[in-house]
Structures are given as structure tokens and as C-alpha cells.
């Protein structure tokens, strides 16, 4: 399998979900073994931030990458799209601290990259073939449980786990979601990840948040200034979607697969595995990417 880049530069602009500012992105072709590198063109010296697991930094509710003090966050939807399209080498110029949220899904990024076209390159792509089961577990964070109680939402936050099984023919992802504390029915989905299935089944799935959680994020943490009911599925106390309609009945579980793809893409190699994630979020996804990277 060969490495790929894009055939021509493409651009897109949108609002940053956290900062609320307009952010411009320009994607350019890059040579073999360059990998995917963000360039903060708004900062002095235009620092580079390679999209690799070693630059991962912990951040509330999104993936952030830091290199030589330069930071870029909310990279996961764009990187998931590159990963699903088997793009290995790209320069991503960005004039702000975050990737724009667009409509909350990866579809605008997919359409942009489709327009750019895929260019096959000389060098071989690196692959990781999982041969033994891996199991990662994380206990429920007591802070989230306390937050639920404080918000009078009730219900129980699950411990989460990710199981990885051999699957030599490609990458299969499965996600179990339980937001039943917020009146959302349990959801689970399993999919072989190919470009076509990604474009139809995963890329359109939008990000989501509890209405109460957004209130706290905006008021206390200063996060989510650009969040609206048109770029985020906002779940009300009754489990309804505020001023919007679902694209799939299980859109939330599909979006969790999108986030998981974005996080494991930081390994920088094609991965052959069957990954089963139960209630996992970015921190356990990151632990998975680090474990796979160390194989
Ligand atoms: Zn997401």
C-alpha cells in the first residue's frame, strides 16, 4: 500500500467552537514521509505541530496537539477524515488555535478533500497489524458523577473500556453508547472503515453535548463560545435535540466512532484491527493510540 497526499491545495473557513472566532484552513500537498503537519500561520515564525501521538495534550472534551509551545486543538474530525481517506502527507495551515467546527461533523472536511483529489506517492505506507487482544479500562471519573448529581440529572456514569482484536483485512470499529441518564436510548454501531462507509455513515455524524453541560462550559470555563444548536446537537433535559433534527437515529454513537478514528489516527500508520469501545472518550482513545503506537 502506497502513501498518499492531495493533488492540489484546498481551503475552508468556519467558526471555532471554543473561541467563537472565524478560522481559515488551507491544506497543501506534502512529500513522502512528511506526515500530517499543522502550521500556525498566525504566530511569529509560523511554528509546525506534527499530528503525532507524542504531541497529544490533555484537554477538556477534545484533542489538542502541542509542539514547542505552539498548540492546536479540536483536530479530531479533520484528522479522522484524513485517516479514513488514507492520506499520509499534508500541510495544514491554520490561522488560529483550533480547527473550525463547521456543522459539527466531518462532512465539510470530507467534501473539501474529495475536491482536492488523492495523489498516490512512491513510498510505502506503514501498517500495524494487531495479532493479540488488547484491553484498556478506565474507571468512571467521580467528578462527572458529582457533576451529574449537582445538575440533578441523576443516572450513573459507566466505567469505560476498549477491546482490540485481530482483524487482518482492515479496520473495524464498534461503539457502545449509554446516555440513558439523559433519556437518550442506548446506541451501538459496528462498521468496517473504508472511505465510502466513512463518507456515508460516519462523516455526517455531528458532535453533541448536554444543554446543562454547555451552560457550565460557557459560564465557568469560558469554553464553547462558538457552540450553537446548528453546529452541535444540544441534548435537553428531556433527551430532545434543541432546534435541530438527527441525521441518524444513532448519530451520537456514530460521532463517537468519528472521534475514536481521529484519536487513533495519531499513530500515523494504517491499522488492521477490530476495535470495540464501550463508553470511551478522548482520554481512553488516547491511551489506546499510545498502546498501539508502542507495539
Ligand atoms: Zn467529535
Architecture overview:
With 295 residues, the protein is an alpha+beta fold. The chain folds into 2 domains: 2-125, Ribosomal Protein S5, domain 2 (2-Layer Sandwich); 128-293, lpxc deacetylase, domain 2 (lpxc deacetylase, domain 1, 2-Layer Sandwich), CATH 3.30.1700.10. It is 25% helix and 31% strand. The protein has 7 helices and 18 strands. It has helices at 76-84, 107-116, 142-150, 195-202, 211-221, 251-264, 282-293; strands at 2-6, 10-15, 22-29, 36-40, 48-50, 56-57, 64-67, 70-73, 90-94, 118-124, 127-129, 134-138, 160-165, 171-177, 187-192, 208-210, 233-235, 270-278. The strands form 5 sheets. Strands 11, 12, 13, 14, 15 and 18 form a 6-stranded mixed beta sheet that branches. The structure holds zinc ion.
Keywords for this structure?
295 residues; alpha+beta; Ribosomal Protein S5, domain 2; lpxc deacetylase, domain 1; five-stranded mixed β-sheet; 7 helices; globular
